[in-house]
Every structure is written in structure tokens, then in C-alpha cells.
Amino acid sequence: MAVEASFEMWATLFLTVVAVVAYASERIPVELASIGIIVALLLLFHIAPLVTGAPPLLGAGDILGGFSSPALIAVSALLVVGQAMVSTGALEGIARFLVWLSRGSFYRAYALSLGYVTASSAFLNNTPIVVIFMPILRSIAERYSRSASAVMMPLSFAAILGGMLTLIGTSTNLLVSGELAKLGQQPFDFFDLTIPGLVLALAGGTYVLFLPAFLPQRDEPPGLGTADGKQFIAEIDVAPASKLVGEASRGGLFPSLSDVTVRLIQRDRHMILPPFENVVLQPGDVLIVAATRKVLTEILAKNPGHLLRTSGAATDPAVAGTQPSELVLAEAMIKPASRMIGQTLELTNFPARSQCTVLGIQRRARMLRTRLHELRLEPGDVLLLVGRQDAIDRLRADPDVLLMEWSASEMPLVSKAPVAAAIFAAIVLPAALDLVPIVITALFGVVALVATGCLNIRQAARAVDRQIVLIIASALALGTSLEATGGAAYVAMLVLEAMEGASPSAVLSALFLIVAALTNVLTNNAAAVL
Fold first, then answer.
1. What is the DSSP string of 27-95?
2. Is the pLDDT score of 177 beyond 80?
3. Three-class SS string for 105-120?
4. Which of 409, 338, 347 minimizes the C-alpha distance to 379?
5. Up-side HSE of residue 22: CA atoms within 13 Å toward CB?
6. pTM of the shown model
7. Within 13 Å and on the Cβ side, how many CA atoms surround 359?
8. Helix (H/G/I), strand (E/B), else coil: 409
9. CA dihedral 176, 181, 184, 187 (to 10 degrees)
């Protein structure tokens, strides 16, 4: 097999090597490297046009065609769908049910969780699945006195194994299927990968199940990875229409508030201190509780009236005229020189001027039994805030508080979880039954999720990973150029000559080993396309 070498072919091969080195070295941002490769290809074929016959030139439309690839569009849309499943908590209910099924056994809880991760990853992007299960598995590890590090690696492996089971399990599957269609071959059906994927998942899953036994039990430094364990003092109002009215304590605890520690009940002018024996909650009671940010977020999402005044003249500024999907939670610390030190929140007028509501206050090494509006602030106090994104952003310029940039997160819309789950089923089922291409159902899903309020436009835009988009587009541009210039045929000829006389299985094995080696320095998407 002879391949006629040309300047364009050698230039394209050189740019391919440059791309591999740039991605592997990580000295240049991935986005910049990807755009640079695309620009270099555009300049190359503008200065030295490639005459191929039909079409006569490898033009800008061919090089930029990756951005319009159905596979890339489907991948981007599915990233938005995955974000909606996280934002609405549509997967967490099943996850907690599986943990409840474990009935006190670490390995049962661990195995059920990883099984659910593997199954979910067959239909969703790995990242949201891992994000959901990281705190769950960490909690399981802590409950059974295991190192959290011993379950994080198996979690990652389980998600990867699950991604091999269906066409939409990973973006790489979609890209390879798209390339098959471009080559005139039959693309993968939804479940074409399931049988070989199951073989690999079962073999790998067996190893993953026993992996914690081989991993070292690390003693984690105090505070490492325990951001979810910080306790905030908060107030829960028992309004006349609250579900808490009439609830009686059992063994000193209130069943509906099992995840919080009730430190004080304010009833009119009287204070009821623990232990709470035969206490029945009444309208007008105010519960002073200690809870983690995660628990307070869940209470806010499910029963906003417990933490916020959502109607009447005393409506909290954060929720006045604001949709739940627009609310953001964040943490801000009282600065050492703050004018708020020694004053209460009412005296500082902080909620009104910042347009943020203080959900809780965290003070290290201090057990507080004080209502929030009576607590005098100290340097280092951390305020848990809720408000619109623009209000949170304005806190960066506030001279009295220091906004903790890492802490901002959107409020989960748990009320939309059934809607998000139904839309997800409407995306997957037609594609699985081979009735409608996945790119169409995925785009339909994005429109439906935004239209029903499961996501807003800003959240949907942020869910699309620009690194994935640019890497795939640049890899497709290189692949198109290599094929058009004969570079791909030239590399194939070198491989065949190096393995002359070997069987087809040996040649394919060599190719797969090369791809496997490339995935250690490149993304799976780029390695597969190249």
C-alpha cells in the first residue's frame, strides 16, 4: 500500500504530535491548546489548499465541522441532563433507600451503592453520579470506622465500568459511533455495547468490591474532607400550617428532624431545654438547632417555610419575588475589622442591605443556645446565606464580610425531581428502542428541563463543559485532516509494515495498546477519534 506524501500530510502529522504533547504536558490550558490546533489547521489549508477532487478543498467548513457533529451535540445535551438530575436530587432518594437496605453492614451498603453507581453510569455522565455518591460513601465509611479514601477509588472505577454498558454511557461511545456513520458504516445501536460491557463490568466489579481490603487505612487529618460536617446554628419556625405541628418527641428526638440536633425550644417567653421528654410541638415554637449545611439545604429545599419567611410583611429579602431556581447558598466570614463585631444581625441591618437571608451561624468550639437575631457576632463567625446570584456576588465588595468563593452553590429543586426523572425516561426509552436518535431526544430533554423549571438557562449553560466541547472539536478536525491528506493511511501503513506477517488479531491488539497508552496522557475522546 503506497501513500503519496505531501507537505499538507506532514504538516498535519506534525500538528497531531503537537496536540498530543500539548494535552499531555498540561502547560497550556486545554481550551487554548484546542483552539490553537483548530486555528493552525485553518491557516494551513488556507495557505496551502488541499486539492482532492470532490470537494476540491479541505475548507473551513470541513475543519470546523466537529462543532456541528451530532455526537458532540448529544454529549453536550446529556451533560445538561445530568446536571438537572443532580440539581433536583432525582437520584438521591434511591441512593438513600439502598443505604437503608444495608441494615448495618458496611459491605452490603458498599456493594449496593457501587452497583447503583454502575447502573446509573450506563445512562448518565459519570461526573454527576460521582458527585452524588461521594458524600454518601464517605458517610458510610465514617459510620463503620473506615477510611474515606478506601471507597473513593472504587467509586471512580465503578462509574467508569458502568459507562461501557450503553451507547450513551460515555461521550467516547457516542463519538466512535458518529465516526462510524461518517465512514459509511452502521453506527452502534443503544445496547450493542451491553454484552461485552457486562463481561468487563462483572470482571472489574468483582475486583472493585474487594478493593477496600487492599487499600491502606489512612488516618485523615482533622477537618480534611469534612466540610459537610461543620455545624451551623439555625432557627426552625413552627408555623400554624407546618407539618411539625403536633409532632411529639420520641426518646428526646423529633422524627421529622432526625438529622438535626435540637438545642432549645423557645415557646413564648419560656425556654425548653433538652432532654425533650413528652414535648409536643405547637404553632409559634422556635427551634434552635445545630445542623450541617447539607441538612439545612435539604430542609430549605423541601420545606422553605421552616427556615424562611415566605409570605406576609416580614418576607425575607432573599425570597421576595424570587424563583427557587434563582436562589444560591454561600458562606461568608466576619472579618477581624468588621463593623458588625459585637452587634446582632438586627442592629447591623445586614440582611436588608445585602438582600441575603442568614440561615445559620457557625462558631468554632462553642455550643450556642441563642436565637440568631440575639447573637452578637464575633470575628471568624461564618454566616450561611441564601440569596440571588447578584446579591451573593455583591458581597465580594462588602467591607464587613469575606465571601468564601468555593462555597457558592445553587439550591436543589427537590420538588422537580419527579419531573426530571420523567423527562430522563423520555430521553432514554425512545433511543433505547431505536425509535429516535439520541441527539434528538437529548435536545428535547434539554428544552423540556428548562421549560419545566428543573434548570434555568444559566445552569444549563454552565453544565456544558467547554473543555470537552473544544477537545472533541479539535480532535475531529485533526481526524478529518489526517484522513483527507492521507496521514491516517500513512500511519496505518507503518503499523502494517512493522507487523508484517502478523495475524489481524495481533495487528488490532497493537492498535488497541497504542490507544490505551494514549488515554493515559490524552482524554478518551481525543484518543479514540485520533
1. SS-HHHHHHHHHHHHHHHHHHS----SSSSS--HHHHGGGGG-HHHHHHHHHHHHHHHHHHTTTTHHHH
2. yes
3. CHHHHHHHHHHHHHHH
4. 338
5. 20
6. 0.71
7. 32
8. strand
9. 80
Residue type, 308: L
Name residue 237's beta-bridge partners: 286
Instruction: For the chain, report the end-to-end CA distance as a whole number of angstroms.
Output: 21
Q: What's the per-residue H, E or C state across 187-251?
A: CCCCCCCHHHHHHHHHHHHHHHHHHHHCCCCCCCCCCCCCHHHCEEEEEEECCCCCCCCCCECEC
**Three-state secondary structure of 352-372:** HHHCCEEEEEECCCCCCCCCH
- Which pLDDT value is given to residue 195? 92
Phi, psi of 3 (to 5 degrees): -120, 125
**Average pLDDT, rounded, for the chain:** 81
Rounded to whole angstroms, the Cα distance separating 442 from 436 reads 10
Task: Report how far residue 207's alpha carbon sits from residue 62's, in angstroms, rounded to the nearest whole number.
Answer: 44
CA distance 445 to 182: 25
Rounded to whole angstroms, the Cα distance separating 26 from 232 reads: 40
**Pairing relation of β-strands 357-362 and 327-334?**
unpaired
Judge whether 139 and 259 are in contact, CB under 8 Å: no
Q: Residue 222 above 50 pLDDT? A: no
Are residues 193 and 166 in contact, defined by beta-carbon separation less than 8 angstroms? yes
CA distance 474 to 33: 9
